[in-house]
Amino acid sequence: MQEVTAVDLVDRLAEHKMLAAAPRKELEWLAARGSLRSLARGEILTQKGVPVEGLFVVLSGHLSLSVDRGSGPQKVIEWRAGEISGILPFSRLATAPGDAVAEERTEVLEIHRDDFRELTRECYAITAILVHIMLDRARLFTSSDLQNEKMISLGKLSAGLAHELNNPASAIERSAALLEDRLGQAEAAARALGEARLDDAQLSAVDRIGNACLARAPQGIRSPLQQAEREEAIADWLSNHELSTVGSDTLADTPVTFEALDELAATVRGQALDAVIRWAAAGCAVRSLASEIQEAAMRISGLVMAIKGFTHMDQAMVAEPVDLGPSLSNTVTVLKAKARKKSTAVEIELQPALPPVRGLAGELNQVWGNLIDNALDAVTDGGRVDVTAKREGQRVVVRIIDDGPGIPASIRERIFDPFFTTKPMGQGTGLGLDIVRRLLLHNDGNIEVDSRPGRTEFRVTLPVADPEIAVPAR
Q1: Rounded to 5°, angle at Cα 163 from 159 and 169
Q2: Dist CA 336 CA 332 (whole Å)
Q3: Which helix (H) or strand (E) holds 76?
Q4: Residue 364, CA distances (Å) to 357, 378, 404, 406 in order
Q5: Cβ distance 88 to 132 under 8 Å?
Q6: Which residues contact 378 (CB under 8 A, 6 or more apart)?
Q7: CB 459 within 8 A of CB 449
Q8: Best exposed site among 53, 54, 382, 447 by fewest CB in 10 Å?
Q9: In angstroms, what is the C-alpha Rg of the chain?
Q10: Using CA atoms, how far apart are residues 369 and 352, in angstroms rounded to an integer?
Q11: Residue 44: its H or E element
């Protein structure tokens, strides 16, 4: 490659899109302190996890930075001729978040970080330019990280929601299929009952057995063995009264007692008794199936309301009073499938008359989602997660406590660093706690952590929405 003279390099810097406005004297300083590097296509400029040693003025070519956030490398930013990469003065960047690779033959002028102190002293105009670049880059990464974390949260949320919705949806489908058959039985039983021509005393007995069939079932669910024993006992009772045992399983599904059946048999006999029992059993089955469909539909409606409350998709992005009760309970609801899968108990305890906090409801829900999700990841099967909220002065403190193995002291100071994660590859992005910290700063809150084996506590502090509300007497 033809040797580049100092004058040529300064001329190229004078034509650089971002540095062209700087005085030539400052450009000469850059040319004197910098070292020219040429990268072949595919060559790595900075490598993930390795300290970034300098600022790179891109003179020609094309660079791209790819970051692996759990699903493989993804291109997050690119630099072309006329742009600046690498570490910047006053930046807190220490190591590269991903690999910066030359997409084609590229030339960069590298200014080593050891020269930054002199750079800021000697090159005022260039320093101002670099500070503006740093601010723009911070906004870009913040926006990118937030969007990426939202998509990851949405993926987890979708999986959990699909699991939660599947059960009530299957229940509706199953009950609706049975309902058609039971309605046919109920119609036939009603015709037989009409043909029996019962008197007033017998009709009163019919009403009583009908009410007995519709009585609230006892607490708990019968085991398969208990259900089989009940069906056998019902069939024996029907046989002893010379009645058909065809509908014994339907009658066994109702909460009707043998005392109620005996009372009915004392008043109604023969074919009329058979018609009454078939009518009562069929009617009870229809109502039971309708009730199951209603409960399943209400469960779906509740899940939809919870997910709507969690995302706050219909709310403007303005700070407002946020009631932490629904906020926390909606988050627990959308993570219930994950908790159930690990047999983890999640308990919420709120101080009575807890005042609202001021913040962005959607962002706070994202905070709770990340912290509770992390707690569920930390505990072993059969573990426990406790969520508490209590007013302390003019702030509300939310504690999320798990009984997992704890965070080692050696990494405790790094858990809020971007891209730092202790989870296996593909399971963590290292963005969750960094996002939590940034969102809380945006909502005038803060977060602290205490951890030891068997107890890890994340403590979130938020301002009370109305400080004039008196603190409850103790």
Answers
A1: 135
A2: 6
A3: strand 73-80
A4: 10, 21, 24, 24
A5: no
A6: 402, 404, 405, 456
A7: yes
A8: 382
A9: 35
A10: 23
A11: strand 44-46
Distance CA 299, CA 315 (A): 24
Mean pLDDT of 80-99: 83
Output the six-digit token pair for 272: 């009329």
Judged on CB neighbours under 10 Å (0-12, 13-18, 19+), 16 is: buried
**CB-based burial label for 163 (10 Å; 0-12, 13-18, 19+):** middle
Burial, 225: exposed, middle or buried (Cβ in 10 Å; 0-12, 13-18, 19+)?
Answer: exposed
How far apart CA 206 and CA 278 sit, in angstroms, is 11
Provide the pLDDT for residue 43. Answer: 94
pLDDT confidence bin for 317, thresholds 50/70/90: low
pLDDT band at 95; cut points 50, 70, 90: confident
- HEC profile of 200-224: HHHHHHHHHHHHHHHCCCCCCCCCH
Residue 124, amino acid:
Y
Spatial neighbors of 68 by CB under 8 A, at least 6 apart, are 48, 74, 98
At residue 207's C-alpha, the angle toward residues 204 and 213, to 5°, is: 145
For residue 462 the two structure tokens come to 């938020």
DSSP-based three-state secondary structure for 383: coil
Q: Is 388 exposed, middle or buried (0-12, 13-18, 19+ CB in 10 A)?
A: middle
DSSP element (H, E) containing 39: strand 35-39
